[in-house]
Amino acid sequence: MAPKMPTTNATQLSCGELYKQQQEKYYASLLLIKARSNSDPNSSEIEQRQFNVPHDSPKTPDNGPAKRPRFYSPNKFMDIDIQDKDVNTFHLELPQEPSVELYPNELPPIRQSSTSNTKGMDIFEARPFPDASTVHGTCETVFQKLHRTTTTPDLPAFPFADEAEWSLVEWLGTCGISNAEIDAFLKTKWISEMEHQPSFKTAQEMWKRIDEFLQAGPEWHSKEVVLPEAPNEPQILYYRDLVECLSYLEQNPAFEDAMNYEPILWYSNEELSDAGRVYGDIYTGDAWLELQTKVPPGVTVLPAILASDATHVTNFSGDGKVHPIYASSGHIDSTVRNQPSKLAFMLVGFIPVCKFGKTEFPTKTKDNQFPGRLQACLFHTCMKIVVEPLRHAGKIPVWIPDPKGLLREHQIFLVLYLADKEEQTLIACLGKNSCTTCLAETKNLGELHICSPRTAHSILEKICTVRRHVGVNADTWTFITAAKEAQLSGVEYPFWEDLPHTDICKVICNDVLHGLHKAFYDHTAKWCRNIIGDFELDKRFRRLPKEHGYRHFSSGISKISQWSGREWKDLERSFLPAIYGATSNEIVQAVRAELDFIFTAQWTHLTEADLQRLTEFDEIYDLHREAFVTEGGRTLKRGDDHWAIPKKHCRKHYPEHIRWVGATNNYSTEISERYHIDLVKSAFEHTNHKDYITQMITWLTRQDKIQQHSLYLRWLNNDWTGNLLQTSSDTSNEEICEINVNLAESEEERLPQSNQLSVVRFKPKLHALQTKSSHAIAKRPPFSQVPIQKVTDDYSIPQFEMELKKYLIRLKNKDITTRQLNQNALTFHLPEHWNTLAIWSRVSIELPIVGVYNGSNERCGVLARLKTSKSSIPCFDTVVIDEQSDIGTQQNGMNGLRIGHLKLIFRAAHDPMTNKLITGQNEKYEPLAYVEWFSKPKAETVKYIDMYEVKQLVNKNNQKEGAMLLSSKISQIKDLASS
Question: I need a surface site. Which of 57, 108, 608, 978 has the fewest CB within 10 A?
Answer without folding.
Answer: 57
